[in-house]
Amino acid sequence: MPVPDLSSKPRQRLPEWLRIRLPTQPTFVETRKLLDDLDLHTVCESAKCPNHWECWSKGTATFMIGGENCTRACRFCAVSTLKPKPLEEDEPGRVAEATRRMGLKHVVITAVARDDLSDGASAHWRATIEAVRALNPGIVIEVLTPDFNDRDEQIQQVIDAAPEIFNHNLETVRRLTPAVRHRATYERSLSVLRKVKDRMGEAVHTKSGLMLGLGETEEELFHAMRDLRDVRCDILTLGQYLQPTLAHLPVTEYVTPAKFAEYARVAEELGFVHVASGPMVRSSYHADEFTPARAS
Questions:
Q1: Domain assignment present for 11
Q2: Does some domain include residue 8?
Q3: Which letter, b or e, does each residue of 88-110 get, where b requires 16 or more Cβ atoms within 10 Å of its Cβ?
Q4: Could you say which of 39, 124, 135, 287 has the lowest number of CB atoms within 10 Å?
Q5: 171, 180 contact by CB (below 8 A)
Q6: How many domains does the chain have?
Q7: Domain housing 76
C-alpha cells in the first residue's frame, strides 16, 4: 500500500474548543525555576505540548530523559532531530530530586529515541526509575517509552525496574503509520506492549495512545482499539493532533468533543479499564487520574 501524502492539506482554523487561556499562577514560575535549577528537560516544552501551561501551574511535569535531541524524525513530533549528546550519568538522580521537591505521588517519565546507543538507553531508563523510587517510596511510576526497536534485552531493562504503568503509543492507525512515523511500525509497537504484558502480567498496567485528525477513518480507529485490546492493553488515551509547525503534518480534521466522548464509550465497551478521550488529551495529561491503587 502506498504511503499517503498528507503534506498538501491546507491549514485549518483552530476551533473554539481548542483555544486555551494562559494561566498566571505563581506555581508555573516555581516549576520553571525548579526544572532550570536541576537542568532537566520536559516533553512539555520539547514537544510543544499545549497543556504545559496548565500542568506546570499545578506543579507537575513530564520528565524527558536521554537529552533533548531524538534520532528519529516522526512527522508529527516537535522534538528536535539532531545528533544526541552523550547521556548524563547524574540525570537519574536529578529527576528523582525534582520528583521529591515537587511532592509527586505519580510521575511520568519519557525519553527521546536513542537509536545511536547499543542499548537504546535502556540502562539509563532503569537507573532513572530506580533512583526515583529510592528517593520517593510509594510513588507510582509511569513510563512512556520508545519502541527500543522491539529488542528483548532493552525492553527487559525497563521491565526489571518494575514501573507500575508502561506506556508506549501506537500514535495512529495502521494505514497512516508509514507517513506519520516512518522509522517505527504498527506491528512493532503492538509487539512491545504484548511483551510487557506477557512478562509482567498483572503487576503492570499497559497503556497506549492515538492522535486523531490525521486522516484516519472511524473503522480504522476502532480496528486499532481492538488491536490494542488483543495485546491486553489496559489504558487508552485519545487526543487531537495539533500541527506544531508548518514543517510538520497538517491537521485533516478537528474532531469534536462529542465525537471524543463517543469514542470513549466504544473503548470502554471493548474492555479498557481506563480511557481518557478529548481534544486536549495527551499521553501524560492528568495521568494521575488513574493509578493501580485506584484500580484495585
A1: no
A2: no
A3: eeebbbbbbbbbeebebebbbbb
A4: 39
A5: yes
A6: 1
A7: 16-295
